[in-house]
Amino acid sequence: MGFDVLFKGTNFIRLLAGLGVALKISLISVAISIPLGIILGMIMTTKNVVIKAVTRLYLEIVRIMPQMVLLFIVFFGATRALGINLSAETASIIVFSFWGTAEMSDLVRGALTGIPVIQYESSFALGLSPLQTYVYVIIPQIVRRMIPLSINLITRMIKTTSLVMMIGIVEVLKVGQQIIEANRKSSPNAAFGVFATVFLLYFLACYPISCLSKYLEKKWEN
Amino acid sequence: MSEILSVKNLSKRFDDLTVLDNINLSVNEGEVVVIVGPSGCGKSTFLRCLNGLEDIQDGEIILDGENISHDKKTLQKNREKIGMVFQSYDLFPHKTILDNVTLAPIKVKKRNKKEVEQEALALLERVGLLSKKDNYPRQLSGGQKQRVAIVRALIMQPKVLLLDEITAALDPEMVHEVLDVVLSLAKEGRTMLIVTHEMQFARAVADKIIFIDGGKIVEEGTPSEFFDNPKTDRLKKFLQTFSYNK
What we know:
Largest interface: A-B, 21 and 27 residues
CATH superfamily of chain B: P-loop containing nucleotide triphosphate hydrolases
Number of helices of chain B: 9
Number of strands of chain A: 0
CATH class of chain A: Mainly Alpha
Radius of gyration of chain A: 22 Å
Oligomer: heterodimer
CATH class of chain B: Alpha Beta
Number of domains of chain B: 1
Largest sheet of chain A: none
CATH superfamily of chain A: MetI-like
Order of helices and strands of chain A: HHHHHHHH
Largest sheet of chain B: 6 strands, mixed
CATH topology of chain A: MetI-like fold
Number of strands of chain B: 10
CATH architecture of chain A: Orthogonal Bundle
Structural class of chain B: alpha/beta
Strand content of chain B: 25-35%
Strand content of chain A: under 5%
Shape of chain B: globular
CATH architecture of chain B: 3-Layer(aba) Sandwich
Strand order of the largest sheet of chain B: 6-7-8-3-9-10
Structural class of chain A: mainly alpha
Helix content of chain B: 25-40%
Number of helices of chain A: 8
CATH topology of chain B: Rossmann fold
């Protein structure tokens, strides 16, 4: 079945290290996307037409453009056109943050505009100040709506890191390919074993996160 | 009886549209004033003006001796004295029933949590909802939620309680349980301003009834004057819409 190659030399450790690279890129990008996304999401709720149009355009660009194209533009394009020499890892963090910020901001905007005005009013009517209203009434509701959705975004980011091998980053999928190629003669069936392991590793990384999101969603459903 | 709320020449306009036109009203302590009128006549807007959810263009609102109509700070300071219950109950969905009730006294009045909780439990028991204290609003029926909303307003010990069509969104069989609570509040001498379409209830609970139409107080009087002996044609016509025997 081709699982034997995993136990040759340091192969399995290399796969894990590859997963580490994938997780590192996605988690750094998440850490950047969440605060930026929250700020941008709050900006998006303004009534200013220009700001609305610009943020809308940004969102649409991110949605329409395949992440791979963005990666190529930033990694190859920036080097050529702007003469900036980005490492592949930096380029992918930029692209993932660009994408994550857009998705996150849309979640925040949705959560903010989804709170009915009467929630503010009934809080004011009880004598709570605007600040108290935000702290005790509005923000907890927003957080509850957003956390499950943003956790979802994290798993999507982890999955999508499989693209970064296209700009030369050796992450888990690439390591897998390397192992298969190196052992093509001695174990021709390695492809199944190695890719199945890669699948399992992705699953182990994403499934607990996905469960957490489901759990929180259920716990907080209103 | 001393005057607790006084409204003088209140006018409210949205751009060119006058919603409330020169309203004058005096409410004494312990008095229950019911406000009726056709949809869109401005009666809900009137209640919302009283606790500052809507700004007013002219006139004065004096609550317990303080003018709360012009200065945001004075309004904020006095808002806890004027409770309001809305048509759609609007409990805080992320908090339990008990936490919904205790939030404002703990955070606004800075009262001791234990003490407030005792009081909240007593009030919940009074409206028959003690067993729901640890539930979330989504687990309650409309009538139950509305009773919690009343308790949530009551625990702030407001001088005046505003009830804005609190049974309008309820199923008919739940209307009674909520109105019973309001009736018992009236009996114990709470000052209330009630907007409602329940005419039977209005008659039972009111000390004074006000008929607003087109943003103006058209007629006011005691329940018997009001229902048995309406003076203006407009009120007669309005009351007719509630009866089916022609």
